[in-house]
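Issue: ligand-bound run for fe (ii) ion - logging full I/O for the record.

Environment: standard queue, default settings, no custom constraints.

Inputs:
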Amino acid sequence: MSTPHHDADGTAVPEESRGISRKNLIKAALLAGTVPLVTGGGVALARDRAASAPARGLSATPACQDGDEPTVPNIEGPYFKPDSPLRTDLTGGGMPGTPLALSGYVFGRDCRPVAGALLDFWQADDSGAYDMNGFTLRGHQFSTPLGAFTLTTVVPGLYPGRTRHIHVKVQAPGQPLLTTQLYFPGEPRNSTDAYYDPRLEMTVRAAGSGEQATFDFVLDVDGTPPSTPPSTPPTTPPGSGTWAPGTAYAAGAVVTYNGVTYRCVQAHTSMAGWEPPNVPALWQPA
Ligand SMILES: [Fe+2]
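Outputs:
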């Protein structure tokens, strides 16, 4: 009965000092480079809660220091379907429920970002039902060259026997698959769900009429060698052309940027820092 609160709460001083990890330093560099912090449904800093509200629950993700544990696995459950569509927006542009914008990074064991990691999400709809006939609320994507991902979805509903959760499979290129689930803090059923794991809690906050969540995955792999330091990509000046930030581009969309024509290879909502020359995972010269 010493100080369980401090042990379990990320606000304790030792926890804060551990928060200054290689991963956070690398993330800070990423954010200072080409991945901006935006609000209202875009990318946010997955571990920025340290600078805002006190954390609820345990550390949501490993600190990613050398020797730390990768993101833990969690059961696949009975509702996975292979061959989900490639997309970052699972709502199809409109769906009942509370809008949820999830974002974060995929890191390797060495705290370097993992580019091109597969992230395959599936979840229940607002009423707690999975689509086993089609691919509603199912989709896969690949992390950007900086290891980032974004997911546009709705808060999953509850169904018997489980607390609120999102399923995901994450896989670095050519590496073993991690199957796990993401959980919501403060859910009443967290304490009674045998599969709930506080290490898999997202950081969740209200954002307009919806919620914004963040989570970083740490895979048991080496990250991407820093052949392209985060500080170097944004050499492209504000460009001319049809590309614009804040635009939802579908795969196959064609834009021009600084006189070059690009074709979208992965559906996404554009943002400053993701100009076509900077993100070959999203845009390829046409
Ligand atoms: Fe489930």
